[in-house]
């Protein structure tokens, strides 16, 4: 019986593995399937104005919906919007129900560990909102001892509490602003995008942004990992709609401002 040295055995194993890798078919990128189907399947809520919602006629509209349509146009395919509840959207992406999700999905380290994101296409900051005639609240520090109307489970509530505010629980942005307007709360800490939407709808409402955080939270188009061609194509599409003015027109329509910075 003949025996081989450890080095010769190791060399043989490496050669066998390299040969197997060379003969194995390369994993297809999701972009190939999207172009073959001529359809981009987009997961979205349909109940989250002004990003994705149904208008009076029942048509699906919103900032994210129009961004999705423009991205699909740049890819040369038809957008297909598939609606689902927020807590199931990312799971649906994982289960290959969607090709991408476009629904104000914040870019976080936890999500990036499992999924890929496009470059950010929208950014939001925490803003401190007061009545327009208030002059005593000019910073987050000025919330100390004041009443802040907040959705109690939100990050904004934690920020208000950390600033020394007494929290008044609400069901969301609209109710929070109403409490500020009626004087039942001194302020609310909330999302700059929600404020821009509110101001767009009610430009004469006597509220203002008294302060804002310097750092912005970014949202991106989320997709399954290990699809570099799809990510590159979507990033290129977003760059193209910024360059041709489409993005600016959509942002002005829904927010009256540039929301990419």
TrEMBL record:
The record's principal subcellular location, in a coarse class, is other
Question: What SMART domains does this protein's entry cite?
Answer: PBPb (SM00062)
Q: Identify the InterPro entries for this entry.
A: SBP_3_CS, Solute-binding_3/MltF_N
Per its UniProt entry, which superkingdom is the organism in? Answer: Bacteria
UniProt-listed Pfam families: SBP_bac_3
Residues covered by the Solute-binding protein family 3/N-terminal domain: 39-258
The subcellular localization recorded is: Cell envelope
The answer to whether the entry has keyword Signal is: yes
Range of residues in the leader sequence: 1-28
Question: Which keywords fit this entry according to its UniProt record?
Answer: Signal
Q: Which PROSITE patterns match?
A: SBP_BACTERIAL_3
Which family does the similarity line name? Belongs to the bacterial solute-binding protein 3 family.
Q: What is this protein called?
A: Cystine transport system substrate-binding protein
**To which species is this protein native?**
Methylobacterium radiotolerans
Its ancestry begins with:
Bacteria, Pseudomonadati, Pseudomonadota, Alphaproteobacteria, Hyphomicrobiales
